[in-house]
Amino acid sequence: MLSLRLLRSLWITAGIMLLGHVVTLYLFLEHGVSREYGVPRHFDLNGEGNFASWFESFPLLVAAMVTFLLASHYRDSGAPLAHRWAALSGVLLLMSIDEASQLHDLFTGPLRRGLAIDFGVFYFAWLIPAVAFLVLAAWYFAPVIRSLPASTQLRLIAAAGIYFGGAIVVEMLSGFAVENGRKSTPYLTVLTFEEACEISGILLAVGTLLRLLHTVQPRSTIELLGAGGGTVGVAPAATAPAEPR
Fold first, then answer.
1. pTM of the model
2. How far apart are the first and last CA of the chain?
3. Which phi and psi angles does 144 have, rounded to 5°?
4. Rounded to whole angstroms, how far apart are CA atoms 114 and 194?
5. Chain segment 190-202, per-residue pLDDT in tens
6. How many CB atoms lie within 10 A of CB 135?
7. I need a surface site. Which of 17, 56, 69, 139 has the fewest CB within 10 A?
C-alpha cells in the first residue's frame, strides 16, 4: 500500500537524519568539525537551506495534502466541517513553507529588541505570536477533532502534543539554555530534543491522517507526479464511507 510505504520511508529517513544530526554535533563539540560545510551541514536540523530543513518540511506538506483530500471528501459528502478541514490543510501548508524558509525568525529580532529580552522563556520572541495563534487554532479546530472517532482523536491530540511540546515548550526552555551560548552542549542538547519531538509528532499525525483517509475511502488512491494522468485525487469507494459523528 502506497501510504504505508511512504510512512515507513519517512520514519526510516527521520531516524537517519536524527542519527546524522547527533553524530554531526559530536564531531563539532569534540573535534571542532564545522557544521556549516560539506556533508555535516546537511544533517544540521537547526540549519537552513540544507537537506535537513527540506526533510522537516516534507511531512508537513504530506499532512497538508492528505488533509486537503479529506476536506474534498467531506465537502462532496456534505459534511458540515469540510471548510475547517480545508483551513487545516492551509495551515499545514504554511507550516511546511515556514519550516523550510524559517519565516518565523523574522519576528524574533524586532520583538526581542522592542521588549528588551536578553534570555528566558520568550528569548525566541516569535513564540509570542505563535502561542496566540496556537490558542486560536486550538479553538477553531476543536470541533474537527471532536467529530472524529475516539481513537483517532487520541492519536491526533498526542501527535499535536508531541509536536507543539517540542516546537513551543522546549523552544521556551532553550531560551534559558542559550545563555550558555549557541554552541554550548546544553543548548545543542535541548535543540536536538526539540527537533526530535517535532519530527516524531508530525509523523504520528501523518500516520493518523492516512489511516483516517483509508477509513473514509477504503479504496482510495493518491496519484502524484504524473501517475494516472498527473492528477491528485481520491478515487470513489466501493462502499459508503464512514463519516465523523
1. 0.85
2. 27
3. -65, -45
4. 26
5. 999 999 999 999 9
6. 10
7. 139
